Amino acid sequence: MQFSMNAAGIFSPRSNRKSGFFPVKTAASLILSAACVAGIAGCQRGHSPDTVATVNGKPILRSEVEAGYEDALGQSNQHPSQEQADMIRLTVVRNLIDEEILMQRAAKLNLTATDEEVQSKINEFKAPFTQEEFDKRLKDRHLTLDDLKREVRRSKTEEKLFNKEINSKINVTDTNITAYYNEHKSEFNLIEPQYHLAQIVVTSVPMPAQQVGNLQNSKATNDAEAKKKIETIHNRIESGEDFGMLAANLSERPDNAQSGGDMGFISESQLHGDPDAYNAISKLKPGQVTDVMPQFQNTPAGRRAIGYVIYKLIDKQAAGQRELNDPRVQQAIRQQLRDARSQLLKNAYIEMLRDQSRVENFFAEEVFKKSGQ
Fold this sequence. Notes:
Layout (H helix, E strand, L loop, with lengths): L26 H5 L19 E5 L2 E4 H12 L8 H27 L6 H12 L4 H10 L4 H21 L8 H10 L5 E2 L3 E10 L19 H16 L4 H8 L11 E6 H4 L3 H7 L11 E7 L2 E16 L2 E2 L5 H29 L3 E3 H10 L2
Antiparallel strand pairs: 1-2, 1-9, 3-8, 4-5, 4-7, 6-7
Helix pairs in contact: 2-3, 3-6, 4-6, 7-12
């Protein structure tokens, strides 16, 4: 069953972060779209062939770009044209430039992630696996342990930098919340009951390992494996393990796995689109989960089974107007306003840092000159 968010989803604001195996895709590579291309029309300056760009004199190496390029292609077996390949590499170079700008700023503020913080995160990744399984997952991603540590350090450092420089300074007042509510009151008028759901999905549908979206890069490859995996997950839930953590680590739904499988609020009419799911969910109390259920996909030839799903009912809202004094309304608005401001300020912050940095993008010059030949 595939659900989409409707306006009532404001009761469950969240960001949809996505990454491949190991959740260490840096924030800079997700939030930036503007390019910093220095000296495109200028003369080629002397630099090592292995250096594709510099940030305040610090080189960015061609090997880093190629690693990012291969990661972008994943296991899709794509064969981009030269122009497409150059465009992908230009994006990788821009991201690496922005990451380096952030790393240098964090170092200046003594916010670089410590060895202890990095090792703690590595231990989280390793916990569900044997050493052999962990090593295999590194090999599948063409990573060494040192590569992973570098990724973790960058991710953790950005998190610390943004928390100090941006998130700690965002203040959403009661006046802001009231103003937003008054301008969007109709959004809080539920015309039918709403079900706040989370899900854990396991399928046998082929998907590149980097795209499954869960923290462990866990993917079933056939129906028998999918069924065994979902039953094991259900048993762990019944034994008291946290649903959200299991979803983040094991669910195969890329768009919500890392948010704990949170689907937001689903209207009752949407639920009726899958009578079996509705019958199971409507019997739940908040906090309870369904049994393992088959998941179907609608095709021109009819419905076909593609895997298995477990639903959790987080909350249920009756139809009617939600008032401003409802704590859930206030929390939803507060979080939405914070997220919007944080996103805006991150973009502005990095633009400012970029303006203050000396950036030389030699790869951009290569592409530009090559196009004129």
